[in-house]
Write a structure and sequence with these properties.
Oligomer: single chain
Strand content: 15-25%
Radius of gyration: 21 Å
Shape: globular
Distance between the termini: 32 Å
Largest sheet: 4 strands, antiparallel
Helix content: 25-40%
Length: 282
DNA sequence: CTCACATGTTAAG
DNA sequence: TTAACCTGTGAGC
């Protein structure tokens, strides 16, 4: 379940379990044997997340770089009794980190590699501002958005414009901004972008705290509206993401979907436009 | 059980 | 624009 909040949680969880001490690294699956051997026995100095990228620095100056892609996961477990042997890996475990009390198994990632510090810096340099980082500058994203004819829905998913937003946060933040996803970037107003950025920061911080993407305001919760809670998904309550064909929680219009650049858009045709002067799509 | 699809990205065509 | 990567889940039979 990897949007940016997942990676920031992962960075915190990995450091909590393995940070400031040596860690044993193996690649039971066999596709990261050399890299695992390089960091095994090294002290884990720090972990961090930038957008959807996980990075961990070891005392050897090696950086572990992981990207979960669409289906990658890290599963944590406790070594019991402490000091004992972790359970045999099940399935394709690319990387296992372990110490005397914890282990963590990485599966399905698109990237698991070692980097130099310079390569780590270059990677971060290619990413747009991450709403979950205190040093992020939303003006950098605005500079890209305001000059682009591409749809705001496409720009929000471009990791070089801003990093960490995925399909769920895209759909939900555009709904909350009442902005149609096909609105060209250059038509978005500065104040709209500033409000949207603030909203993204708030939504994603909540995601880091809870591990859930919950985007509906109190007045639109299942309790407040007397409807059934969402159950088809591990996420929380949402306005439009994967709700195509269902009624909008606000206006009852039927939520729509359309593929854009290979990913599904979701929006409410009535709530999401900003007046007649800016109606986009149909 | 099988199948479609998924919160992502890259490289091939 | 499409396939490929590769795991997990839910729907349907």
């Amino acid at each position: 379940m990897p949007e940016g909040h997942t990676l920031h949680r992962l960075a915190a969880d990995v450091f909590a379990a393995f940070g400031d001490r040596t860690v044993e690294a193996t690649s039971p699956q066999g596709r990261f044997v050399e890299g695992a051997a390089r960091i095994s026995g090294q002290k884990l100095v720090r972990t961090e997340a930038h957008g959807k990228h996980f990075l961990a620095e070891f005392a050897s100056a090696d950086w572990l770089h992981i990207h979960l892609g669409l289906i990658g996961t890290v599963r944590f477990g406790a070594v019991e009794p402490a000091g004992g042997t972790p359970p045999e890996p099940v399935g394709q475990v690319r990387l296992r980190l372990a110490n005397d009390t914890s282990y963590a198994d990485l599966r399905g990632a698109t990237i698991c590699e070692l980097m130099t510090g310079g390569e780590r810096d270059a990677l971060i340099g290619r990413l747009g501002p991450d709403p979950l980082r205190d040093d992020a500058d939303p003006e950098l994203a605005w500079t890209r958005i305001r000059r682009s004819r591409l749809p705001i829905g496409q720009l929000l998913m471009d990791q070089s414009v801003l990093s960490g937003v995925g399909n769920v946060y895209r759909a939900e933040t555009l709904f909350r901004a009442r902005l149609h996803p096909l609105t060209p970037g250059k038509v978005v107003k500065r104040a709209e972008w500033q409000r949207m950025w603030t909203d993204i920061v708030e939504l994603m911080r909540y995601g880091v705290e809870t591990g859930r993407i919950d985007t509906v305001d109190d007045e639109h919760t299942p309790d407040a509206m007397g409807r059934d809670p969402r159950r088809d998904d591990h996420g929380g309550e949402v306005y439009v993401y994967r709700r195509q064909g269902e009624p909008c929680h606000v206006c009852r219009s039927v939520v729509r979907t359309q593929v854009l650049a290979g990913r599904n858009l979701f929006w409410c045709p009535k709530c999401q436009r900003t007046g007649l002067t800016r109606r986009v799509g149909s």
